[in-house]
Specification:
11% strand; alpha/beta; Rossmann fold; 13 strands
């Protein structure tokens, strides 16, 4: 991970747990009822946020606003949206919002128009029946989400995704394709990502074996065009990223070349429009009616005060299956930190584990744990008011299941209610006494309901930006840098040495002082 010369921050805030505003926020959360009868709706571009399933009161909201002011939220938000340095450990901006701005800087606008023109030309010429998208992490999940959301019924181009270094991934990704009608899109910001380059090398060999010039069948998206050029990819098929675009925030950029080729440049434009509208909402809406801020405050309560260790994402739309890993990466790579910007322990639990599955599959997989398990987890329920198919009964059942599962998690069932049910079913008092505890569950499980009018590029763009800004706001409160990912880098460094040691002809000996005893053992066992 490269970085500019690093000035040590001198304006870091006081530790979170020492702030009187934090202590007031904790008390307000702890004394607030887990459920109230009031409706708590927040209207935002492209969606409605129902926060009625979270702890909410006027005291808690006032304490949250005071905490945000104490953490310098207004200034940090301004710096983010203005493209100033907010990624302090790498001394760079995180200016992904400008990629979807209606009026973007000249270089951003020019690259956007260049890619759109290239896609239109490819469409007009009916080039490339098959697209193999090679990238990993932030170079994969957003594109995969958009293609599955809007190409679920099929498009005239077949898209394959290859991310994992496992050779089965690239083998399967190329299997059965006609190389003469295939475009391989390599996406790597640094153009050094080992998984992407290894898979790209296999794709290049595949093209050569078919007697083709790889330069005519490969494109690249990168912040290092000279490296892609050295790979043999022509300038006309290299599209630019910028150093200030983090991978997990890059779906708005040329990373979505495959999106445009698969489901259309208009889909990508709609995603950007929805996200830009959410940016304006985030910048201008009062904190009490600001959807990302409200979600962030609820997330802080659930994780840092109530001790909830995870967050479940439950999209009740099968087209949003890939939203789960998308938010998982966005949240866990951004908020998986335990020290603040001054290098001090944060002092409270930070980023939760994020997981999930589309409903109604989830109901038949893990919702039992959600209802009656000892821990449970907060849930983000997501649904679309309107479906894009013509089977109205299916959609009614889908909506009913979402609302019912949410209501059951909120309301629960008391022991008395469970016993009364048993008696009404004809059980004896003794049987009812025995069975009732098995049928009772606590309720009071926190949740959000996010309602989209329908799944459109605009509404999905707004939804993704909602999560981006929620993550940023939580980072501000915890005082952490949500734009770096130093932890995973350490494993990458170790992997480079182990790869060499595993080579059959390697003279490298696994030394105990270089690795732990178990790793040394398995290097020796697996070599060759």
């Amino acid at each position: 991970m490269t970085q500019a010369p690093l000035p040590v921050p001198t304006d870091v805030l006081a530790p979170l747990t020492e702030l009187p505003e934090w202590k007031r926020f904790v008390v307000a959360a702890q004394t607030c009822p887990s459920q109230t009868d009031g409706l708590d709706l927040v209207e935002a571009p492209g969606l409605t946020l129902d926060a009625s399933g979270q702890r909410h009161s006027s005291d808690l909201l006032a304490a949250g606003e005071a905490l945000l002011r104490a953490r310098g939220f207004g200034e940090q938000r301004r710096r983010l949206l203005a493209g100033e340095t907010v990624n302090v450990t790498e001394n760079r901006a995180a200016w992904h919002t400008v990629l979807r701005a209606p009026t973007a800087p000249a270089d951003v606008q020019a690259e956007r128009e260049r890619m759109d023109a290239w896609v239109r030309r490819a469409d007009a010429e009916r080039r490339w029946r098959h697209i193999v998208h090679v990238g990993i992490g932030g170079s994969d999940w957003g594109v995969r989400l958009a293609v599955s959301a809007f190409g679920y019924a099929g498009t005239w181009r077949d898209v394959r995704f290859v991310a994992n270094i496992d050779g089965h991934a690239i083998e399967g990704g190329l299997a059965g394709l006609d190389p003469r009608d295939t475009l391989v899109v390599l996406v790597s910001k640094s153009f050094t990502t080992s998984e992407t380059l290894e898979n790209g090398a296999r794709a290049r060999e595949w093209l050569l074996a078919a007697g083709l010039d790889p330069a005519e069948h490969m494109a690249a998206v990168t912040a290092q065009p000279e490296r892609a050029r050295a790979w043999g990819i022509p300038d006309t098929q290299i599209f630019r990223l910028w150093d200030w675009v983090g991978g997990r925030f890059s779906v708005w950029s040329a990373v979505s070349l495959t999106t445009a080729l698969s489901v259309g440049a208009d889909v990508l434009a709609g995603l950007r429009m929805g996200a830009a509208a959410m940016d304006t909402h985030f910048a201008q809406a009062p904190l009490s009616a600001n959807a990302p801020v409200r979600m962030a405050l609820a997330g802080i309560v659930n994780r840092s005060i109530l001790g909830q260790g995870s967050l479940n994402i439950a999209p009740y739309d099968s087209r949003l299956a890939n939203l789960v890993p998308y938010v998982q990466q966005l949240d866990m790579e951004s908020l998986g930190k335990s020290v603040d910007q001054a290098g001090r322990p944060v002092g409270v639990p930070t980023g939760p584990a994020v997981w999930g599955m589309p409903g109604t599959d989830a109901q038949h997989t893990f919702f039992q744990w959600m209802h009656q398990g000892s821990d449970g987890a907060p849930v983000d329920f997501i649904l679309c008011s309107q479906a894009d198919h013509h089977w109205a009964q299916h959609h009614r059942q889908l909506l009913a299941n979402c609302l019912a599962q949410r209501e059951a998690l909120m309301r629960g069932k008391t022991l008395a209610q469970a016993r009364a049910e048993c008696l009404a079913e004809g059980l004896s008092p003794e049987q009812a006494d025995w069975l009732a505890p098995h049928r009772a569950h606590p309720g009071g499980r926190p949740n959000h309901l996010i309602v989209l009018p329908r799944l459109s590029p605009y509404s999905l763009g707004a939804l993704l930006a909602l999560y981006e800004h929620r993550v940023f706001t939580q980072g501000v409160i915890w005082g952490i840098d949500p734009f770096d990912q130093w932890g995973v880098e350490y494993g990458k460094v170790l992997a480079r040495g182990i790869v060499q040691a595993l080579a059959p002809a390697s003279g490298t000996v696994a030394q105990a002082d270089a690795h732990d005893v178990s790793t040394c053992h398995w290097i020796r066992q697996l070599r060759g």
